[in-house]
Automatic annotation (TrEMBL):
Positions bearing 4-aspartylphosphate: 58
GO molecular function, one term: diguanylate cyclase activity
Record-annotated GGDEF domain positions: 182-319
Protein name: diguanylate cyclase
């Protein structure tokens, strides 16, 4: 006789008390725990509560037969799998086909043979172990895919979204804001004279400075839906769904104060002794004509204006970029 190993919780569905008793005693002798159900219409409810490891299901029952019960159980699982073995005094090819078609996994003829029952349970045990291994492998694969997706969308140096990740996030933000009728603000931010910084202090120091800037931008994002990314080189981007122009301008002033307070030395900058930002802002309520490319183009034009007007400032594409108001509001101190 096989050593079946661990104890399982078995649901026995049979309208005949004598048959249930025989089956229960056979299973208990093998070390398993048994829950009985005499009414086929109640089997699904018992199954939900018990969540058995195995179901032994009589075929011939009044009102609803075992095939009907099996279909109910399979509908409950919704992607899971609990082995179902039919019990029947009829075991022709047609009976077996109908049982498998209804969702069963095997067939046992009545009266039960303890030795055959043990063998069937041993086979079920092997299938359960195989399923557990497959589930573990599937979970490992899912986690690996999530890690790969994270790596593919994030910049290795700063940990922020990379250009591809930003493009995808911008498309998604446009869709959400278009659907909600909400504003979307986008900032492109450039570290002033960063090539000169690398030339003066070296690329190791430059990488450290970019990581520091990335952390400043990440910490400055005021809302959970806001995203920071590395647009390329020393350029960064902020996506601010639900933020109107006034909110974006307020954040821009805050960023200028934050980078000034960080006081990261920049010995080769013509702007001042410390690292500084230039930035371009664009704000819109997206419609069907709005595109990610168009949004980035507007932000880039505003960034170019900020650079051409002395750097260490932000400009908004939607406002006249050479107005006194813009200079007063957004020029760094």
């Amino acid at each position: 006789m096989f050593d079946f190993g661990p104890s399982y919780r078995v649901l026995v569905v049979d309208d005949q008390a004598t048959h249930r008793t025989i089956t229960r005693k056979s299973l208990e002798q093998l070390g398993h725990r048994v829950v009985e159900c005499a009414v086929p219409e109640q089997a699904a409810a018992v199954f939900k509560v018990v969540r058995p490891d195995l179901v032994l299901l009589d075929v011939e029952m009044p009102e609803h037969d075992g095939y009907w019960v099996a279909r109910q159980l399979r509908a409950i699982e919704a992607g899971g799998w609990t082995p179902i073995i039919f019990l029947s005094s009829h075991h022709t090819d047609e009976d077996i086909w109908q049982g498998i078609h209804a969702g069963g996994d095997d067939y046992l003829a009545k009266p039960l043979s303890p030795q055959l029952l043990t063998a069937k349970l041993h086979a079920v045990h092997r299938l359960l172990q195989l399923r557990l291994k497959l589930l573990e492998r599937s979970e490992q694969l899912r986690e690996a895919n999530e890690r790969l997706a994270h790596v593919a969308r994030h910049d290795a140096l700063t940990g922020l979204l990379n250009r591809g990740g930003l493009d995808q996030a911008l498309h998604e933000a446009l869709q959400r804001c278009r659907h909600a009728g909400a504003p979307l603000s986008v900032m492109l931010i450039d570290v002033d004279h960063f090539k000169a910084y690398n030339d003066a202090l070296g690329h190791v120091a430059g990488d450290a400075a970019l990581r520091r800037v990335a952390q400043l931008l990440r910490d400055a994002c005021p809302k959970p839906g806001d995203l920071a990314g590395r647009y390329g080189g020393e350029e960064f981007a902020l996506l601010l769904p639900g933020t109107p122009r006034s909110g974006a301008m307020t954040l821009a002033r805050g960023l200028l104060r934050i980078v000034a307070s960080a006081a990261i030395p920049h010995p080769a900058s013509s702007v001042g002794p410390h690292l500084s930002f230039s930035g371009g802002i664009t704000t819109l309520v997206p419609d069907e004509a709005s595109t990610a490319e168009g949004v980035l183009l507007c932000a880039d034009e505003a960034l170019y204006a900020a650079k051409s007007r002395g750097r260490n400032c932000f400009y908004s594409f939607e406002m006249q970029m050479d107005t006194a108001e813009q200079r007063d509001l957004l020029r760094g101190v």
